[in-house]
Amino acid sequence: MASSAATRELQRDLENKANDLSKLQKDISKNHQIRKKYTIQLGENELVLKELDLLNEDANVYKLIGPVLVKQDMAEARANVKKRIEYISAELKRLDSTLQDLEEKQNSKKETIMKLQQKIQSLQAGKGKA
Amino acid sequence: MEQPIKGTVTSLSSLFPVEEAQKASKRVEETLSERHKQLNQLQDFTADNNYLINLVQQLPDQLHHDIMVPFGKAAFFPGRLIHTNEFLVLLGEGHYAERTAKQTIEILSRRGKALEVQVESVKALMQDLKAEASFFDATASEAAEGLVEIREDYVEEPSPKKASTIGIVKPELPISSEAEDVPRVEDDEYARILSRMAELEKEEEEAEIANREELGGAGSDVSSGHVILEGEMKSSELKEKCESSRFQSTEKFPDHWHVESSKATSKGKPCPKKKWNSQLSLFLSSGGDADAEMDMREARLRWFGHVLRRDTNAPVRKCERLAMDGFRRGRGRLKKYWGGCAITTYSHLLATISYCFKFLTGSDFFSVVLVLNRGSLGNNRSTYQGNCLPENLAYGKFNLTENAPTEPQVKEDVQAPVIAENKAAGRPIEPRFDSSKAFTGSIIEHTIDVNSREQSVSRNSKPVSRFKMQRK
């Protein structure tokens, strides 16, 4: 009886761990998506910066804010874009580190789950023999 | 040759499980389709960009354009485009810049270039994925078929006698699309054949010794001629059987023929192969070629003869029939197959023999050959007399059987200038022409020569194959 209670507990534990793992996996995939979006934005911003660098100093540059186009200084626009690029790359770095973290967690979770499964199997096998 | 198993045999499915390979190929296929979508999107972008560049180029051609202006989602109203050389270009991220048409085109072409780079990278990725997918697919299908991997180290042979090894190596060629246990069975069978061959060789040696003693005792040409004929008859019957089964001819040979011929070889009688060998050496030596080439030819012919004497279901014969679609030998291997080489050597041999024959007897060699062939097909146990000598008969037989593959259709319609007599009359065959004696003598002389050569080698009483002995 004691062994069956132990297996039940182990199974509950296993279920919890599996839930945690699936949550982690969801987080990871979400992070991946965000990261993808940011990389695309980074590429676009770099393109913009390149184009702005190619423009003459006296060219008219506008920024779309909501429904209106607001005229901007060339230098201001450039600074804005640069800042944005910096921000995005910082964000990408942060995302990378969190992703690494999450993956490590995922791996450790997987290992614990494997161990739990083995434990349950050995318990069941022992039960079968007895 | 003495180690029948040279390589290792592993089944492909044990290295790559079928389901795993299929799963992997499926996954690669999925990513490939994803990339394909991406590529299509990028190509759409490029097309759009090109269209836009064209439009921007054309717009400043006129001062104004009459257009339909979209109003909301559902409606248009007529309007007019003015200031056709002023563009507000979206640079990305909500930044716009006022540009002229020319400047706009510059921006757009730069964008087009960026797109092209992306397309190229995606294409390269797709190519990699495709290669991966095809590899996985091939592996999966091969593993499912039960293909085996046979590894054999290539050993460079220093002698020019590679020709003789071709036939030996052949049974070990990878045989795909067969169950994985088949090659092992073939190996066994092959080993058995080898041992049988060695056995026969040894018997032959013994018979040869006996023959020599007999020769020494009697010292007459007659007995040797008789012996030659006897042996040759047996061998030719056997060979004919081989040929007929090979070409699926309509003539059926009684089964006991086969039994008889095998009996003849297992008895102490002079083995047909022996004569065959000695004659071979005679012909080859008459060619006057370099030693190495002669040895090669001899080995090739010996192997050919050996193969022809086998049963049609023996692995060596089966190998011959194997259709190797798209099969190519590896780099550094010989390009020629032994079959083709053997045929060439035979035609060469035939020319030599017919020349010799004409020189010695003054009659045409081929007519005799063909007649002999006809007679032996019709009569079970008939021998020939008249203007045909035992030696000639022997040669004729020998040639007829070997030439059957090259000209099997001629033998039907040649008139027989020779009279056939049944052996039931029991008349012994004796050489009648003096001119033949010189020829006979030369054969015997050469036979002894070969004997002495082989004798010296065969002192180590182990049953060694003749291929080996020749190579030493």
TrEMBL record, chain A:
One of its GO terms (molecular function) is protein-folding chaperone binding. InterPro entries: PFD_beta-like, Prefoldin. Keywords: Chaperone, Coiled coil. GO terms for biological process: chaperone-mediated protein complex assembly; protein folding; response to cold. The keyword Lipid biosynthesis does not apply. Residues 85-119 form a coiled coil. GO terms for cellular component: cytoplasm; prefoldin complex. It holds the Pfam family Prefoldin_2. The keyword Chaperone applies. Belongs to the prefoldin subunit beta family. This is Prefoldin subunit 6. It comes from Anisodus acutangulus.
Automatic annotation (TrEMBL), chain B:
It holds the Pfam family Prefoldin. PANTHER family: RNA POLYMERASE II SUBUNIT 5-MEDIATING PROTEIN NNX3, UNCONVENTIONAL PREFOLDIN RPB5 INTERACTOR 1. GO terms for cellular component: nucleus. It is found in: Nucleus. Its main location: nucleus. It comes from Anisodus tanguticus. One of its GO terms (molecular function) is transcription corepressor activity. The keyword Nucleus applies. The lineage of its organism: Eukaryota, Viridiplantae, Streptophyta, Embryophyta, Tracheophyta. Keywords: Nucleus. Residues 451-472 are annotated as: Disordered. This is RNA polymerase II subunit 5-mediating protein. Belongs to the RNA polymerase II subunit 5-mediating protein family. It comes from the Eukaryota. GO terms for biological process: negative regulation of transcription by RNA polymerase II; protein folding; response to cold. InterPro entries: Prefoldin, Prefoldin_subunit_alpha, RNA_pol_II_subunit5-mediator. Residues 453-463 have a biased composition (Polar residues). CDD domains: Prefoldin_URI1.
